[in-house]
## 1
Amino acid sequence: MEKNNFWSPYIAGVGLGLTLLATFYIIGWGLGASSAYSLVTAVSLKEITPGYADSLEYFSRYLNAESPLKDWILFEVTGLFIGALAGSLLSGNFRIRFDKAEKMSSKKRFLTAAAGGILIGFASRLSRGCTSGVALSGGAQLAAAGWIFVIAMFAGGFVFAAFFRRLW
Amino acid sequence: MTAPLYGYGIFGENTSLLLAVILGIFFGLFLERGGLGNPHKLTGVFYFTDFTVPKVMFTAILVAASGLYLLSDLKLLDISRVWIVPAFFWPQIMGGILFGAGFVLSGYCPGTAITGLASGRLDALVAMTGIGAGSLIFAVLYPYIEGFYVSSAMGSITLPRLLKINHWIVIVLLYVFAAGMFYLMERFEKRS
């Protein structure tokens, strides 16, 4: 069983807010995550099938850079991984597992994780970002984009959860 | 005014990448310590069982928004040099709805999936692979959806400018909304 020794969500929220504020002040933009996936996918595709990768207009925004992997967001999510790993190791929360709802089969969990991920990957590109780049960073900037996305995301999540009550 | 520091050329690109790692470490640490690497907590809000996500998220938004506009009003930060997320009304409505469904289904979002993997969750790795695949599907379908993708563009507009009111009015309203929401969530969690 996982140790339930998380911090108060309000304390974690203050820390996260100060990190975001520092990012605005030091760098001049917010925190993000989803574009790192898109960037890595584009670069991987280019390795596997260069001609096809170059034919995809949307990926040219990453591949036209002189060295695509030398990108701010990729360094930021690398830090994210290190910070989260440190947190889970130091608190004793690190444990290799395949996490799922109590009565769900591993096969079904594999499918929900994969299908949900695909939806998120597609939706993040359509929205110009995810919960980090649009909802959190945009929300804090009081950007219209952030609040449009936050409202639509919670609406979508609540409706979906109402139809699929046994997922979690 | 000399901030944002990178925008004013206080340091170069390589330093910005080092700072990206450092800021990212704090980002990941607070996500993990807040419980946001755990898919049960991440999806709890949608089943009214655990309100960690809105508590962490709205607290962070209020802290960062107050700080950002305070620094701007004190002329310590040039907010016109901060990159504001552009609004595209219908694509972000549609994207938000699909994202919410994917969030409940997978139990993660892009940043929290990395947090989940960093706490040893292999299901998060499956979700991460899915997110990459979803990006690829978007890029393949892009020629057919480009029209919708660029539709209803509103530019990098903020709510205070859109509603023509002072930014502190918006921030105070958010504090009032969050306080009411946190109060109800605490009461609800205590009861169940």
Note: Chain B has a mean pLDDT of 97.
## 2
Amino acid sequence: MFKVSPLRQRQFLGGIIGLVLGVVLFYVLTLEATESYVSVGPMNTGHEDLSCFACHADAKGNLLQQVQSNIAHAVGSRKESVDFGTQDVTLENCLQCHDRPNDRHPTHRFTEPRFKEAVSKVDATTCITCHAEHHEERVSITPVNYCMNCHQDLEVENDPLDISHKDLIAKEEWLTCIQCHDFHGNHKYEVAEHLKDTIPMETLQAYFDGGKDPYSDVKKYIALSQEEWIKTLNKKE
Amino acid sequence: MKTKTILKLLTLFMPLVALVSCGGVPEEKTETTKSDNVFSVAQVLEMVAKENDVTRTLYTKAIVGKGKKQGMKFDEDWRKDDVEAGPLPALFLRGVASSIRKNPVPLGLYLGSDFPINKANKFEGKQAELFKKIKHDQEPQFFFDEDQKLHTAMFADLASAGACVSCHNDHPQTSKSDWKLGDVMGATTWQYPKDSLSYKETVAVLNSYAKGTVDIYMEYLDEIKAFRKSDKPEIGDKWPAEGNYLPTAEVFLDSVKKLSSYETMKNLVAANK
């Protein structure tokens, strides 16, 4: 039925090879074993064992349905667009494993209107402001002086520090906050009372980059592993 | 028309047919029609704020106030393992707010003041401006938060129990030490994305608040289980006023419902007629 012109045989062969290669690549690159080749970068510290699907869940519908729905949305015959391929990763994905009742700076607190200005400087309503994924590290924000956006008026009665909090703030020593206090408050440790005993910035930077935890090895809550997270999903079903 | 042209047209046309024949991804059907919406967002937030007033007063008076007399401790660091205490009323509310955020109802709840214990909790911007009015007449204030596209309401948070006044006046970090009973100590801020709610959505908002209350109270009871040095109160159907007792979460919630349900039910029934 399809007769290929002798002049077009090379193009036809090239087309067939391209099609076969495309199908093979599509198949191979969607296998779990090849996830690292598709990933935009190595996972952050603690996330090394996660599979792509832990955050990038399949979008609703099949690819053809998604294409059709988005075209319909583009021409105005559908109200909402739909995710294509995988669902957008949201805050909820992070919280499914990392939500803790003792979080002293939970993201939802910063959606209150009074934090509008602070949030315009450092968006504490979402995890990725400080923990951008696929960078093989813990903390991606620099510099770590974000406390200045909310705690300028802090004064501690009977201040136990050798240099008071008030003086540190007056001198704009905002990097010192994190040398004593872990932002989320989940570590169990004695807070230093002398500035010389605080955690050196280089040690903290090494920790942010994925190194040893200088606050403490003991934490009140441990984030869920992928297996534990899957169990929680099964329970919901 | 030549067969070749027909074939070409078919080749172009078939994928389009295949694409359209899939039917697309079904649209979410969570939207309610305008006629289903029987309450304005202001009415619903007033209802849930009323429930909050009753819950907070009950917790402050009957649990914190009476509990302290029995030797029970309440502390801002109550979640720390080396602190054997329960949540202070402001942290109880924060616990409710955190629980609300974990369920699908898009309700936001916050507590602030012009003289907070933690200065980072001081009202700023629009909230500070409206709080001045609330301090003056104790009337709720409503506004639309343009940035987040959320309907926002603020309600006075009164010093309704002796424990509120004494704890805030005596706190080492306090920025005001002359609070009196009945003072407007702060305000709760509530947010919701829609301007009107159906009966079902209204009940979901009220339920999410009630669930938040139970969740944080259960967390407190769980902390008590882990006490090592302190005397553990007996948990059952008795209250601290009777001795070293604490009510179960069910008993606590039942009391809240008894105290608040008349007003709420009146509103719900009126709308359902």
Note: The longest strand of chain B covers residues 150-158.
## 3
Amino acid sequence: MTSATVTSPRPAGSLDRREPDRPVGGALRRLLPLFPALVLLVVFMAGPILWSVYIAFTNETLTGAASVNSRFVGLGNFVKMFGDEDFRNSFLLTFIFVIGSAVIGQNTLGLVIALLQRGRARAVRSVVNGVVIAAWVVPEVVAAACWYSFLAEEGTLNEVLAGLGFSQDWLYSAPMIAIILANVWRGTAFSMLVYSAALSDVPADLLEAASVDGASGWSRLVHITLPLIRRSIMSNLMLITLQTLASFGLIYALTGGGPGTASQTTPLYMYEQAFRYFEIGYGSAMALVMLVIGALFSMVYLRLIKADA
Amino acid sequence: MRRAMVASILAVAVAAAAGACGGDSAEKGASGAKEIEVLYKVEPTWPHLEKMLKQAKTQYEAAHKGVTIKLTAVQGGNEVYYTKLALLNRSADSAPDVYLHDTFQVNADVAAGKLAPLDDYLKTWPDWSSQYSEAVQQAAKGPDGKIYGVPISTDTRGLWYNKDVFAKAGIQVPWEPKTWADVLTAARAIKQKVPGVQPFNMYSTKPLGEAATMQGFEMLLYGASGGTLYDETQKKWVAGGKAFTDSLAFINTIYREGLGPKPADAFDPKLGDKVGNWFAAGKLGIGLDGAWASASWKPGTAVKPWPEWTEKMGWTKMPTQNGEAPGAVSMSGGWVMAMSSYAKDKKDAFDFITIATNKENTLLYSLGSGDLAPRKDVAADPQYTAGNPSVKFWTDLASVTHYRPAYEVYPKVSAEVQKAMEAMTTGSKAPDAAAKEYADALPGVVGGPDKVLAGS
Amino acid sequence: MTRLAARTAALVSLAVITIAFVGPFLWVLLASLQPDANLTAKPTFEFSLRNFGAVLTWDIIYRPVLNSIVISGATALLTVVVSGLAAYPLSRYKLRFKRHFMLTLLFTTGLPVTAIMVPVYSMFFRFNLYGSIPAMVLFLTASSLPFAIWMMKNFMDSVPVSLEEAAWVDGAGWVQSLARVVGPLMAPGIAVVAIFVFVGQWGNFFVPFVLLDTPEKQPAAVTIYTFFSQYGQVAYGELAAFSVIYTAPAVVLYVAVNKYLAGSFSFAGSVKG
């Protein structure tokens, strides 16, 4: 998910090559260091994923008669899913959540913070970085506790707003806004770090020259900076989209998907089906749909990167 | 090649696991020594069952040399426990031998063949016929008529009310409502005369889970004429009908007139805890709740004890809709100790159940949890009634109580009921519209229109 | 003086953003120090460490945190070793399916872990691994790998191959080259990967909850969740104190690598493969 330039500021895309003065060993020997990783990935990731794909086409459950006698139901789960009002609702909410908290929220705020920090004093940068990163590092359950206390009816935000007469229970009246804000708070650090690194690669003399030519700050941003970091933007968008799509813990701990189904995104609905009603066949089918959606998003971003390259 | 690799890495992992985890697997394989694994749940605020099982373990091991009881706790609430148990029950290796089981999950496990029938063993246990009433014996009866668990607790439901609030509202105590209308009248009086106090509380949303369906909806439905979720004679689920719509209409009235919890509280999964605190603080008038509510006030079991509750609180039967016979309604559930069909030493496992549910242990548990005792000798024990003047009332409600149709699909039916109740809570639908939606959804949930009976 | 104006505007914006980010933290920090904490971050002049005293017990803090250290530490260590090895051929050789492999890995980082827990759970039972911390660490390592291999490969790409050539001339194989030349040069990168994985697992609730059997083995993430849902209405102060203690190690570790963190997020070219 991340890349590095610790000792060299130059992007390293060109290192693929054979070692010169060495006898060419068998392909197997060269791949040897990959084996431990491959074994772990095959056993603990690929295996379970394939099994999930299989049970997505069965009526497997955790309890009851179908748990001992599950059978193949073809596309039954998928047909049921698209006729399921709660699923469609969750799907729409997931879309809103991803667009709102990742594509717009984290991405924009991360870029804005990174831009604002350019050329600031070291002390200023440390403080801002520290606070933003702290929000990212905090474990999910604690982040949820922070936001619960912040937004609850007797919470800090209402205490602040009390004078203005805005006071309300935000988690009840605006659950989607609550989880989107909480996720922006928690995830912005990642985008900020990505863009800070990308911006440091933008040659200062280029901006200087444009400035001398009379280009405004805005036009420098649009015509020079953004095109130069375009690839970072797409990569960042892809990663945060995938992560946000799968986001579960924060929402679960903060609103539990409620009130009703008002903030029940697909991962939460999937969890409810699989672990509360024990419909693991149906739950796995939903997971499969989520995987396909993630793949589609990734392909769009990758295509954009490629077109650009 | 790949398979060999998979096998070898798993072998390494198994070896490491056995070495690092206190040799669990080695213990089981050891010759001669038998081990019975007992699964149960524990919460920081609910240690009562653990206390009881630890006492039972000591008693059992003293009497049965060579058999060890391994107590395995699941930390968390009911939903967490159901999930963990279902996962553990997936394979014979991991299934516990004996476990705490919610009566409403029993039928699903019977259908899957996970539970062992106890009838043959119960015949040899004199307490079963002498100490458990016929109604209590049915608690974990499977669709095949066999018994699958020994009750450790039972419960009934009714109305709690705060006498101070009633005094301020000018309502006479003891309060004995005869109809739903009487309940509403009292709630309206509180709303009018005692500002700042929530008149009535009931559970009506999905986050409250089974508490909403059972304490909330079924307490209404089973008290309305002809009201039931399941027709026992035709073996079909009942889709809507007048009783169903009327029950929803009652909930609708509560929320539309502002007699119930604020919407945000109605959706709070911790509403149950709040109710205990509100009663103690004089902030709540009436609560449709369970016998165990006093556990949150009783010194010794409560986190914040409120010893005055015996004076300040009143309790009364939940009336039927228009006072139809028998005049009151109650719902019962409860927990049993059940035995896995995978248990290797079934006789030993059953012996442990009889010790865990003997008089001494049942008493210990009932005193702690505030749950009603299923055993006659415990119910008659002076210690049992001493700290809790309400217990006789709740125990006697067994005469009007109903059991849920706890068949395999029940949890999903329950979820549909909660959906309809939520529509009343938020006011998003009219009662008849929500009832119709329930009727439409029912065939899909219970496995086909042939299992559904149109409501009347 | 537009320059000064712009500068001031930037500083003011940063201040506003910082305050907004601090907001949600306030309650936890204040409530942990106040004996009668409730949900509002409204300081009284009464401060005490009583909440900390109440939670600093073997069952509530020490054992779960110790478990967390063992689980997260072992996972981080194993992930660094395995991903470091895997990154070497990916960084140094032309391989036929490399691009596809890397993209698959990237895609896996967005996999909802809830989706595969049921099969993982079944597998753990079938092979009698349920409740085994070492086996769970292997699974956690596998789930951290896609991410770690990506980071490792990109760190490794930035170590010029020319530096290795001297070692090859001396007859060193890839093992020595990796251990003696590449490893030390990318030490900061390795630290970033290790800490990234460690902190990721530190907050992991779902996997240990599903794969471990007894409360004695559970890490702090599970304990605090239980604490949160059980005492949520009762002991705000203690909950806040628990949160502070539980969060501190993660923050401290990040501060330790903060210097290298910014550099490790350079993306250009990485997705191109």
Note: The mean pLDDT of chain A is 82.
## 4
Amino acid sequence: MRITRREFLKISSAAIATLPVLGFDLTPAMAQIGEFRIKNVKPVPTICPYCGCGCGLVVYAADGKVIATEGDPDHPINQGSTCAKGAALYQIYDNPRRMRKPLYRAPYSNHWEEKDWDWVLDRIVERIKATRDKNFITKETVKVKDEKTGVERDVEINVNRTEAIATLGGAALDNEECYLYTKLARSLGVVYVEHQARL
Amino acid sequence: MTNHWVDLRNTDCALIIGSNAAENHPMSFKWLTEAREKRGAKIISVDPRFTRTSARADIYAPMRSGTDVAFIGGLINYVIQNNLYFHDYVVNYTNAAYIIDDGYEFKDGLFSGYDPEQRMYDQKTWAYKTDPADPDKKPLKDPTLQNPRCVFQLLKKHFERYDVDTVCKITGTPKDVYLKVAETFAATGKPDKSGTICYAMGTCQHSNASQNIRAYSILQLLLGNMGIPGGGINALRGESNVQGSTDMGLLSHLLTAYLNAPTNDAAYKDLAGYIKKETPKWGFKTNTPKWIISMLKAWYGDAATKENDYCYQYLPKRDAKRNFTHIGLFEAMYEGKIKGALIFGANPVVGGPNANKEAKALENLDWMVAVDLWETETSTFWSREAGADPSKIKTEVFFLPACSSYEKQGTVSNSGRWIQFRWKAVDPLGESRSDLEILYELGKRIKEAYAGSTDPKDKPLLDMTWDYPEEEEKLLDEVQREINGYDLTTKKLLPKFADLKDDGTTSCGVWIYCGMYTEEGNKTQKRDNKDTTGIGQYPNWAFAWPVNRRIIYNRCSADLSGNPWSEAKKVIWWDPTKGDPAKGEKGKWVGLDVPDFIATVAPSDPDGSKPFIMHPDGVGGLFAKMADGPFPEHYEPWESPVQNILSSIQFDPAAKIWQSPMNEQGTPDKYPIIGTTYRVVEHWQAGAMTRNLPWLAELMPNVFVEMSEELAKEKGIQNGDLVTVESARGKVTAVACVTRRFKPFNINGKIVHEIGILWHYGYKGVAVGDPANRLTPHIGDANSNTPEYKAWLCDVFKGVK
């Protein structure tokens, strides 16, 4: 599960060996980076959050902060390499634009207000419940044609659905998250369940 | 993907169509380049534009957007006419020999059974012919393939019309280039060669998209390319877990693991009805009762009993006659029928088709919940920045900050179906939380809100199993175990889905994932990167669904007697010495992968050479029921500058047409240019995950629209000018990129221009720009309803209009 020191040394020296073509020597700088990463920080393996290649990346974090990210040299698909997006993984964390607090926009308001988690979750549940309770179809009567006689008759069927709530998204979520999402949505009676796989 | 990323190194020829793999799935080229360098493989790029993939290809074939069926149909014809198909494979492993019902016919673009009022087919004549005297109703066959009513002859006849000249008049491909593509790819029809087809959104986002993929499948079956190393149909998927999210059933027509969601059709009235409707008489899908009952046991626990149909009635049943897919959803929202929406990591104001309409639709919501790492165009649709008037928008909006993929742990499934674990490196930033924790909290609070209710409609929520541990790591672990499934008698994790039962004694959230987490441990965490197979299967790295199989349909790699068709392309084979005689086994399937077959069914057994075990007839479907026909047929996109020259039917006759406001259809007199959209390596999808990153924003700061030098000259546009692209739905401003990468097409003697625009952009983030989807229409594929993003009409003008 962890990348060994030896494997990282191997990678570092391979990178250095290709450097002289640049016309200047980066050996001391590379050695320093290699040493630093290996000695003090444990690389944590992850899978790239972008496309469906499933490349391995590693994250170096210390004192609760991300220090660096790079391709996972042990991963059979990318063997340490990354594309531009995978190489930028670090900035997903170190980024002032990341949202850090729950926000609320009241009807007809022109701005967000910061709220605490309990307040927003309770308010959302209140809205889901009210919408579901007011817009729920329990049973429907559908026509069925007898294949032999062609005679139509009514059949009552439990449909147990609300058409007033939609759920979207999922392709950026983990499997376990998608699983809870689908289980919860279906148990609520939501039939407008859609996500990026349709698009 | 039927195969997987590393397996691309085993190919002899890669046909990349509807995909700019080198740009959008860069690791594909790591392995394709190896295939070329080490094994002399050829790479073919078919694309309206000369892309980064084309630049690394051996052959580049330009093709007008929306003409895939014509392009591939011509290859099918070429392969049949020149006897280049893999004869023994086609006769035995496809339905080529099956005789078709006398009532079936195809005439001037329409198959038998068409109802123009409903825009639907009655498919009863699209069936195998049977002997009326045979009580088993076994299909009649002609293994000589000579009967004019056998699938092979009907296929031959259908595609005879796709001769090279006709095809090139439709696609605009130069004939000499087309012939080179045909010759090169058809060469993979030999037993010791394999060819792969790689595709992406350039294939899927059309009004006849499913038939594009059907055409690829037919071609691959004819060439014997399914189930072998370096072969297959490989969808290069665009999100890190879009494979997994589909497996989990986050689509209106599916439950988990591709079990169909029931509708209000009377056939689905009760569990017995569902099982009758969904369970075929033959094949692996005869296990459907085990899968659905085990899923219901996972969802509703002890409340699910035999007496109450395992809570089957809790499942919502959508209206069978209406459309609940993405376009249908936004049409309903636009009409004010949807009151609330939960949106987890999605941005339809940028990524949805007809984005102006979808943004407007959001204004009709009473409430909306957006869960994301960033403020998106969707979560701020109500703002002045969005061009909206907040004082007129009633929607109550909640924004919940989600943490990133390495601030939590969980699994994702890549295109090759590898379920890989991601470890947590650092705590969530600020107050952000994992989507798992957010969904858990929502579910818990919803159950609390309904506690004590006696209303039957609330029973599903009260009975839904949700007693997960609160602690993050344990919560994840328990959800993974539930997905894998339990033997409820012993409380042990199930080792494989073959152990599932239909009597309520097993639970399994997602049957195809069964085996990922067993009593042996969590196999998604496996990181042994030694390749024990020599063909790059890496069986001890993570876990591939199903049952850690890396190449699906791999029974096809062996002949009727169970020997590999060729040493070079072997995957599994029958070993008569490996069976356990005590169990009456005659031998066993062994080899370089987990067999996609019952391991002890001998080739000489009655069903021993039916490799497509998920099909009710066990063979590959050259002829197969789809909404718009049993064979693919070329129709023009909803908006096209030319007439269909193959038949009088211009547009896919079974695709749903939305006649609704804000969805005008453009005509070629006003909008003569074909528009398409695509992506660049520096950005991802609707952009929030990359346009907010300064490094990537700096690399690719602006929306640009690529156009040919010829079109730019006609329009007085210089490279770098700001231009306006306009369609019947909207307009966007972009930077002109005048390039030789686009060339005007000669379509049946008429010069037709095509332009392409990036669709990643919106007004939030570091790199900002107009969303190209303001131009695209609400029209979808006849089978999947995937929007036709990739071929529509527009015009382009110099300056900001």
Note: Residues 1-24, 32-36 of chain A have pLDDT under 50 and may be disordered.
